[in-house]
Every structure is written in C-alpha cells, then in structure tokens.
Amino acid sequence: MTIAADSELVRSIDALLPQTQCRRCGYDGCKPYAEAIAAGDAINRCPPGGDALIAALSALTGKPIVALDRAHGEPMPFTIARIDEAWCIGCTLCIEACPVDAIVGAAKRMHTVLPALCTGCELCLPPCPVDCIDMMPAPRAWSPEDARAARQRFAARNARKARAGDRSRELAPAAAQPSKAEVVAAAIARARARRATTRDSGRR
Asked: Residue 104 gets which letter from DSSP?
C-alpha cells in the first residue's frame, strides 16, 4: 500500500509521534516512521513514545494494541546531551549528527549543546572520537511544545541539507582539501597531546 507523504493519515500519525528523531524505530526520523505506519508497518517501534503512544496509534489506525518491541530499545526518562567542553576537539561530527540543530560550535572550536533544543536522541554519541559527550537527566519533561519545535527544526535542517546538496552538485570541483578523517585524526592527536601535558603538569 502506498500512502502519500503529505496525506492526512501520515500527518495525524506524525502528530502523535514524540519527534525526538532518534531513529530507534529503524527509520530516519519520526515523519518517515509515520509514513511507514500509514503504509502498514508496526505501531510499537518507538521507545520514547512507549505504551501511551502505542495506545494512541492503535486508536488512530485501528490496529490492535501490542507490547513495545524492545528490540528497538527500552523506554527511558528524558535525558539531554552534555559536552565536556574541556575535551571537545571541535571536529563537528556531533553537529553533523544532531537532527535538530541543538549543538552549536565551529571547526576546531569547542561545541556546546543547547539544552532547550536537545531531544535526547543520542545520535551525537557514536561519532564523537574522544567520547566527551554524556547524557544527563533533563530538568523537565518532554512536552507537546517540545515535540512541535523539534519537528520544525528537523524539517528545516533537512531542507537546508537538500539545498546544500543541490549547490554542491552545481559547483565545479574545489581544490583538494584534507579529508574529514585526516582533520579528525589531527584533532585527536592535539587532544591527546593536551591530555598528556595536563597529566605531566599534575605530577609536578
């Protein structure tokens, strides 16, 4: 069954989803999962939504209530990311991974998480080469207002990336630049040197 991405059913399902954009469901965000549910996929693949979401999706779609598929994760309290700025190497990998633009910073400069924007998706954790990001208990509950704002930021980010992709295809090949792997390797080397200096200073 094919369902238009902007159909009323997709919009109604998407409105129920938590908009954390965590991808634990196996899709690249809440909207793609909404499209999949509308096309017949299971309604129990969203750990952040948990049992309450399953019940709401059951009422909307007419599908029976089933237990959360824990292969996709366990329901957990809302947490937000925190960067240990003393060890951030400015690689920008967490910024690229964040689906809602909740991390700010520049290459070779420390990054920081904007707590009011973080969805707790944890997508910034795997790419961090120096393991300087932790998940901390959030000072508030995830609210419908948070979800609406996260949906808008997610859509805006995807639109911006699409425009950037179109521009890059139109431009002539640029002069050779260091690869991302080379840049990150150099940043890690600097971080290790800095840590070694800190340890040596502590022994004096």
From this structure: E
